[in-house]
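Changelog note: in this version the structure field was regenerated for every chain. One regenerated record is shown below for reference.
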Amino acid sequence: MGFPAAWGRPIGAEVDAFVDWLTTNMDWLFDGFSDAVLQLLVWIEDFLLWVPWPAAVLAVFLLSWRASGLALAGFAAAALLAVGLMGRLPDNPDTLWEASMETLALIIVSVLISLVAGIPIGVLGAQSRWVDSLSRPLLDGAQTMPSFVYLVPALLFFGLGTVPAVMATVIYAVPPVIRLTNLGIRQVSPETVEAARSFGATRMQLLVKVQIPMATPTIMAGVNQTTMLALSMVVIASLVGAGGLGEVVLRALGRQEPGNALIGGLAIIILAIITDRITQALGKAREEALAG
């Protein structure tokens, strides 16, 4: 026996009506935010494309050396150089290097927005049981949904292009930094907190000068996971108009060109490995500094 149809509610139609109301009455907000994100993305992308490739390789080498040492620096520089050596894209005036810079710009903007939104929410969750109780089921739901689902709200509110790709990436990638910021603040030793309070630290001083610095290694782990999730959305984001390496892979798959799909995928993997190793090394360096 089937479920009585009369008991059901047209939830889909109600959601559609609500979305229509938002897009009609709040278009000024979405358009303004979209313009700001697009401008930031253009600035970063133009800068990355302007930087000469030897300077980019040298910058990665120096950052990796500062974070972990010569072994990581040599590996990161060689891996980035390998992206450039993969050559020019077929039927496209751009090289794989330029496509990689476009992808890197999208990842930088997505991670920046994720951190600006996620770290304060994580701090509030650690300070307020109400915020933690409210955010926890939302984060659980966000981390169990298929990644394609995040394209729906991005498309509805921002249309096609790089901005919805950024927003879908943010929604998908932000939960780890919220969770681990919350966890890092909560893991600060109660004795340390009490000692700071006994010396007259205000709530803000306690947070800024004690809790956040001591939680930095855990927060950096959240930054690492957020960055990796953002990179994992590169190909999916290309479905709504994002360029870069995701477009390279998607176009190659559509044309049944496994070789071109392979080099696009390898470039994504190389960027992921470089960012993973550098962010892990920075977090470990901070942890060792606190231990020392």
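Spot check on this record: The two ends are 68 Å apart (CA to CA). The chain has a mean pLDDT of 85.
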